[in-house]
Each structure stands twice: as C-alpha cells, then as structure tokens.
Amino acid sequence: MTQETLVRPVAQSPPVPARRRRPPSFRRQGGAAHVFLLPFLLGLVFVTAVPLLASLYLSFTDYDLLHDPELIGLENFQRMVSDERFWASVGVTLRYVLVSVPLQLAFALLLAVVLDKGMRGLALYRSAFYLPSLLGSSVAVAILWRQLFGHEGLVNGVLGWFGVEGESWLQNPDTALSTLVVLNVWTFGSPMIIFLAGLRQIPEELYEAARVDGAGKVRQFWSVTVPLLTPIVFFNLVLQTIGAFQAFTQAHIISGGQGGPLDSTLFYTLYLYQQGFQSFNMGYASAMAWVLLVVIGIVTAAHFLLSKYWVFYGDER
Amino acid sequence: MRAAVRHVVMCAFVLVMIYPLIWMVVSSVKPGNLVLSEPGLTPSEVTFQNYRDGWNALDEPFSLFFLNSLLVSVGSIVGNLVSCSLAAYALARLEFRGRKLYFAITLVSVMLPLHVLVVPQYIFFSQLDMVNTYFPLLLPKFLATDAFFTFLMVQFIRTIPRELDAAAWVDGAGPFRIYWSIVLPLMKPALVTAAIFTFIWTWNDFFTPLIYLTSTEMFTVPVALNSMMSSETANGVGALFAMSLLSLLPVLVFFVTAQKYLIRGISTTGLK
Amino acid sequence: MNPVNRRRFLQLVGMGALGTAGVTALASCGGGSGGTAIRYAWWGDSNRQQKYTAALDAFVAQNPGIEVRPEFADYDAFQERITVQTAGRDVPDVFWIPSPQVMSYHEAGLYRRLDDIPSLDLSAFSPTLIDSYRIDGELNTLPRSVLTAAVRYNQTFLDEAGAQLPADGAWTWDGLSEFLIEYTRTASGGRKGIHYNAQADLCFEAWLRQHGQDLWTADGRMGFEVDALAGWFEWWEVLRRAGAATNLSEQEGAQPEWPVVGDKVLMTFGNSNHIADEAPMFPDYEFGLRPMPVLADAAAGHRFGYLSRLAVYQGIDDDKLEAAGRLVHFNINDPAILGIVGLSVGAPANPQMLQAAYAVANEDEKKMLAVVEQEMAEEQKPRYEAPPGSGTWRTIMTRGVEEVALERSSVADAAARVVADIERELGRAS
C-alpha cells in the first residue's frame, strides 16, 4: 500500500523533541499501575470474574435454575452438534455479522467525515442523525418497524405506486433478517460519534505539516486522517463485531422474542436466551455462551494480529 | 450555491433517517385507539390525551421515573469516567507484569453474553441484601466493569503521541501528574464520548433495572415504559409513544450539550 | 419513616447526587404502616398496575400491622424477573403463576401448602372444586380466576352484512368454517371471516379435548397425537386457502395482535378475559362472545377452564404466614377486591365471587362472565398443567404454524415435526 509509506514520515515528525528518556523502572510503574487499577481489579474479582467462572462451571452441568446444578461433563457441548436450531442460529448470526458490521461502519465513517467540519449547522445535523440511536431498544421500535416494513407499511406503500404489491417484509423468512440489518445501520450513531471524537483527536499540527509539504485535501485525508484514525477504526471494528455476534435486542423486540418467522431471525444470543430463560436449560445456555466466547475470541485475536498491518498508533516507537 | 445544494441534500437525507420518529410524534397526538388502525401522517383529530394518560399510567407519576433514571445515569457517568480512565491509563501507558493479561480479561468480559452472567450476579447482590436498591446498577460502574469504555479509552490514549508524556517525565512528573494534567485533558473527546454513551445506554437499559428494582417507586424509565403496553393485548400504544418521546428529550438535550465538547483536543492545549 | 424509606433515603444521600431529586422522590414514596411486610408479585399492563396497587392499599388499610411490597411487571418481564429470583431463592411471598411454569415451580418445591393456614378461609369452595385445584394431590395453589377458550365476533359487522351466526345446534367446526367462507365471499371492504390463529392455545386445547385427547397428561407428557394436530392445522388452512382467514403477512405474524386485525375480521379466537380489555380499542363496534364450536361427536367432559393461579412461597418466614394467608384470602374470597380491580384477569374462580362479579361488570365483562359460567356449569374431565420442559412448546408451535401457513411444508409433516420437537424438549427435562 502506498499510503503506508506516505504516512509515516508525516505523522512521525511532530513538533516535539523525540523521546529521550527510557520510561522509569518496571517496579515503580507496577506499584503505581496497581493504584490506578484498584477499582478495576475489585470489579474484576467480584463483579466480573466470579460470575464468569460460575458460568464456565455451569456449562458442564445440567442446571434448570430451580434445582442445584448437576455435573454432566461435556454433554451440553455434544448436544450442540446435533441441535438443528443451534446451527440455524449460527447461520443467522454469521450472515448478520458479515453484512451489518461493514455496512454500519462504512456509513458511520462516511457521515463522521462529512459532519466533521466545513459546513454550517453541523451540530444540528449530527444530533438529527443521532436521534435514531437514542431511541435504543425501546418497545416502540417494534411498532415503528412494522409501520415501515409491515404489510401495510411505508415500503409497501411506496412499492404500490409502481404497481408492485408487497408482502410484509417482517413476516417473510427471506427478508426478515435484512430488516434487522437496516435497523442496525439506521442506528449508526454510536460508531459515528466515536469516529468524530477520533477525528477531533488528530493534532491540527499534523495537517499543517502536511500542508507545508504541499499536500492537498485528498492527500491530507489519506496521509493524515486515515492513518491516525486507524486505532479508532480498529476499535469500532472489534467492538461492533463483538456486538453483532451478541445481537439480541433488535430481534427480541421485533420478533417478539421468537426469532421468527421460521427461525430466520433467531440470533445466537436469542436462542441462548430461549434456552436459559424459557426452557430453563441454563447449563446448555452457559455452554453456548462459552462457545460464542471462544469464537469471538478467535475472531478478535485475528483482528489484533491483522491490526499490525494496518493500524497505526501515535505511541509506537 | 454549492453550500445550498449540500444543505438540501443533507436535509433530505435527515428526513429519510428520522421519518419513523416523525411518524411517532404524529401518532402520539392521535387518539389512542387510532394509532395503529389509522396509520399515516395526517391525524384526523389532535389530542394530548396520550401524554396525560402516559404521565399518570402507573400509580406514581412519570416524573419519578425520570428522576430515578437521572440518578442512575449520572451516577453511572461519574463511575465510568473515573474508574475506566484510571484503568485505561495504566493499561495503555504504564509497564507492569500482567498488563497484557488484564487487558485480555477486559476484552473477554465484553465477549460473554450478559444473559449467563445475570443469575450469578443476582445471587451475589442478593446475598449482600442489595436487591431493590440502586447499588447493583451503580457499583459495577465504579469498578470499571464496563470494559467497552476501558478499551475505548485505551485506544484513545494510544493515539496521543508518547513524546508528550515523555517530555513530562523529563521534567520529573510522576504517573499521577501525567494522568491528571496531560492525559486527561488530551483525552477529552474520549471522555465526552464515554459520558454520552454511558448516559444513553444506562438511560435505555431495561434488563438490569427490571431484575433488581422490584418496587414501582424505584423503576427507571424503560421499566415503567415496558409496563405501559400489555404484551397480551397491545393496549396503551398511544401512551407508550407519548412517554417514549418524552424520555428521548433528556438524552437529546444531553447529547446536544455534550457534543459541543467534542472540540479539538490537542489543538487547544497549547502544544508548542 | 419505614425501613424502605430509610434505606432509600440513605442511598440517595449516600450517592450525594441530585439533592432535590432525592427529596422529591422521597416525598412521593407513600408510607406503609410498618409491621409484617409481604412481597406480592403480579403482572399486567399499567391499568392493572394501578388497580392492584389500589387494592393492596385497601388491604393494608383493612389490616393494620401488615405492609405489602408490590412487585409488578409486564407478563414477559415478570417471568424473566421471577426466574432470576427463583434461581437466587429470593422469591416474593405471594405470587401469580404464569401458565407455562405451574408444574416447573411445583417440581422445584416453590409452593407452600395452603390448607393449614388459619387466616385463609376455603369454605367458599366445594370439596370437588378443592380437589380440582390440587397438584399431585396437594393443595398448594389457588385459582384467582378462570379463563375459557372463546370466540369473539363483531356484531356490527354481522349486522352490516345482514348475517347471523350459526345457531347453537349448528355451532360446529365445519359449520363455522362454511359460515366464515360464505361471509368473506359477500363481506364489504375486503373484510375477512377470521384471523389465522392456530396459535391460540386454549382454543387448540378445546379442539383436542373434543377429539378425546389432551394437551398434557397426568404424568407430564404430551396428551395428543400427530393426527389431531394435523386436523387442527387443516381446519385453519381450509380457511386461509379460501381467503376467509387473514394470512401471516396481513396479520403480521403467527400470533395476530388485536389492534392489527380488530377491524379487518369478523371473528377472533382467544381467551374469554381479553374482550374486556380489547373491546374498548374499537369503540364504534359492538362485540359478542361465544364458547368454542363443538364437534358433532365431541368426547364427554371436553369442556374446561384454565385456572390462573397464585401461590405462597415455600420459604416464607413462619411469622409472615398469617399475613400472607390474609392477603390470599383477600384475593380469592373478598368481593371488595372485585370492585377495585375489575375483571381484566377473568372471571373469579370462587363461585360466590362470580355471582358478586355481575354487580361490578360492564356490558363486555358480563358477556365474559356468562360464557365462563356456561362453560364451567358443564361436566368436565380433569385437566393437567404444562409439565417441566414444556416452556418452549409455544415457540415450537409457532414454527409449525409458520411452516404450514407460509407453505413451506405439508400439514402432516409440520404436525409430525411439532410433536417430535415437543417430545424431545420434555424428554430433556425429565
């Protein structure tokens, strides 16, 4: 990539004297670090780790929430192999991750760049675009979505002008998942804000330096904005991917917790929820959660490995 | 001229994006029984009855739920900003044994679906006799358990050129000085972002308050909203819309105010 | 200041946030009377929240020394919360039991026996009735109300079309089907005969019992065979193919919602109690209610009512038992509660209360009471509750309905799949 080679010289010539002193000794920072980390470590032990380990233990048990858990070895994991609905939920989730994450991020980045500067009334536009995300997971969204994609919804109304008679998009197993992708893209506000904040973090001096070097607007974008934004792109990518793997609320609200029609919106986590809280198979649900954790872990690790090739940190030496 | 064209394009786009909300606003002033049976943007009759009904739908007025939500949201913001920025600074900048491990655990805790953690966490808080108090909602925030924000802040700190704190080291500043007077001011956009998200997510959170807050006078807005429409009969849609819209206002106001502070971080700190 | 308020006060002050908010919030917590505190959990919509809160206040006023801590949520949310509470063994003292969970909770030992609490008077119930409430021979739950399967029709639409429902003698499944097809053929405004509601579980159960089968058996298994389910699917498919029932697209799903279909169809299937809540949504129409159609050769004792139950938690403190008994007594025996909460949960199970209910019922509720009374007056063979592991049978059923109504599989295949899936879930739980 040619941008890579363009990037480094510009970005690495900040108007500050280069690092002179090695950071202080290991031990001294270790002590300080643990003071900073005190709340984090308390939370880690009491709020995170204990429930985390408990769920790991439960994944090897038969636990119906009402009786004491009973160890059954790997049975929960074996059961997944032959569970049709489990595989249906895997398929739905993978399709959702692959389609909705890139779409949402591209959309968010585009609008963040457009809404960053150079226009009057940007604050107003930003707020307007953010509005859908504020609505969050309200029960009202289910009704809104029916108003858009239902049998008598807006989309079919528009299609009607062209003489096409549409069915409910939500009740068709071939299109129901797409409406959830649209919902996810519609609520692109969070990654957009993170991108905006990232854009704001780029030192103006770097642009000045680039201008001094004779770089135009486009060149500045590719050689300053893009490389310096990569940690933020990376953050959004990692977190939105994790979020999409765990997608739950949208399908829970719009399909009324069923994941229908015909399991076409049965997200992994929704199935996990059904198993845990409706069938009372909390052992199985925990096992499913840990399988998901391993999968997400592998995907995230891959993201981190690949990040060496495209993410540029301001603190790299 | 070019600016005008841009504005027209933007406005059109905004309209498309917020059409559903406009529909919701219009629906909220229709008589309750017409909301679903008479869709469309032109109400045949305008009334604010839905707002009155919604406000008094439960035996406590809705203002109480707003105050409860505000209490939880503001508490969560304070908790997250303090605890996550402390942890993030250590993870991003200090060198110590176990740094990578801690960072990995932070990430792992984002990866496990919430639903399998609910029961063990509930047992924990119920044994501390904290059910039906706000502690189960707030305590975790003060202990940096929202790994999303720790990770977010780590990423932001890492975009800050290390030369800045290296210079401070030269001047003899310790880690706390550097955290307080260099890193924190420079990561203002990240702090504002974290504040915005914490506010919105806490404001909209349903499952945790539902589980822990049992008495009506403790309800937060989403729990109250959820009880307004019966899942058996779908009554009360109009009131639900009205109160959902009202509950958007605080977050919107907060967002509009906070986003102003997403100003250029570094350029204003006199880095010369 | 009672303990709740004091604790809340400490929280608010302790957090040091929002001083004024704290004061306002405090001011709005009504003070209880202190003394024995009973946790009472129920579900519903905001309307029911208000009415039952008022009823509990009236109870507290009647019973000095008892304080009631209400725990309210929407039906689905209620189940989520009580499931977590059960896992943490932190269960409300008196609670309503959602229908899919009756037996799961029983097997988990959540219910305390109710026939030895002096403050709970059971004299209004005949020994036969009491026996019909027992689970595994134990009286550990009591019915708050009775729901029956019912057909609701739009009298206004009937009048407009100049049509009349089949007379009682012709009120059969076939007769109804023909009538609906005929109605749709002549109806104005694209109206249809009925919504597509193969999902309505009480109505399906009525169908099964008339065919001599059951939804569940005494020993916690499925009580019906593939053929009976296939016949049920087929009854709906005939209507759908004839255009007399709305399709899944038109009604937005396999579980049609009243606001969506209410003004599109002549008739809906459902629970007897819903008419009182739902009729007001379409104030221009007059609605009527009837029992389910009956097979010409229906099995004896097929009539039934679903008992909506409440229970006292097994782990309740002994010193609270007397107060809990009084609260249960108030719920099932005291006519005063009817005047406050109305009849949205259905007809009272207590025969004396049922008669008292006519005095407080509105026109729609009177129709409901009449239908329930008529059904309950008939001979009934026993009915068994859903066993553990049946928690997802509705989800499985929904998929079956979708397969059939979306023409993804034949009626016979879909029915076989549903039966196999439910059986597998039951097998897993045992």
UniProtKB/TrEMBL annotation, chain C:
Segment forming the signal sequence: 1-27
Name of a matching Pfam family: SBP_bac_8
Gene3D superfamilies documented for this protein: Periplasmic binding protein-like II (3.40.190.10)
Source taxon at top rank: Bacteria
Keywords tagged on the record: Signal
Keyword Signal listed: yes
Entry keyword annotation includes Signal: yes
InterPro entries assigned: Bact_solute-bd_prot1, SBP, TAT_signal
Name of the protein described by the UniProt record: Extracellular solute-binding protein
